[in-house]
């Protein structure tokens, strides 16, 4: 269907492959855990090559409740907003959701650079 709506997509990597972040645990308590990961941005290689090296990777934070199976957990995805250069504000919003067994995945735009 994508190729019918966007004929130019035939020469692109569509759909993009799944990302495989490299994770590290930032902190862990009895009730929750925060992990951060880094993965290579999934845009077209020609675009990646045109970007400075700082922009080739994107970041993700994953705030999860503990002691609950993934089948019983929901997940809220927080996308980066204009001027939102860190995870802090969105993780702060996600904290209360943990009490309702809602995990929070916070994406960082790769174009902010590290």
From TrEMBL:
InterPro entries: ABHD18 (IPR019149). It comes from the Eukaryota. This is Uncharacterized protein.
């Amino acid at each position: 269907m994508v190729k019918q709506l966007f004929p130019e997509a035939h020469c692109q990597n569509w759909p993009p492959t799944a990302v495989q972040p490299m994770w590290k645990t930032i902190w862990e308590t009895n009730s929750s855990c925060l992990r951060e990961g880094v993965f290579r941005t999934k845009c077209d290689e020609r675009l990646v090559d045109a970007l400075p090296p700082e922009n080739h990777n994107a970041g993700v934070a994953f705030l999860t409740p503990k002691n609950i199976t993934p089948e019983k957990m929901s997940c809220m995805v927080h996308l980066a907003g204009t001027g939102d250069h860190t995870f802090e504000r969105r993780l702060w919003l996600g904290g209360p959701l943990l009490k309702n067994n809602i995990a929070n995945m916070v994406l960082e735009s790769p174009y902010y650079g590290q």
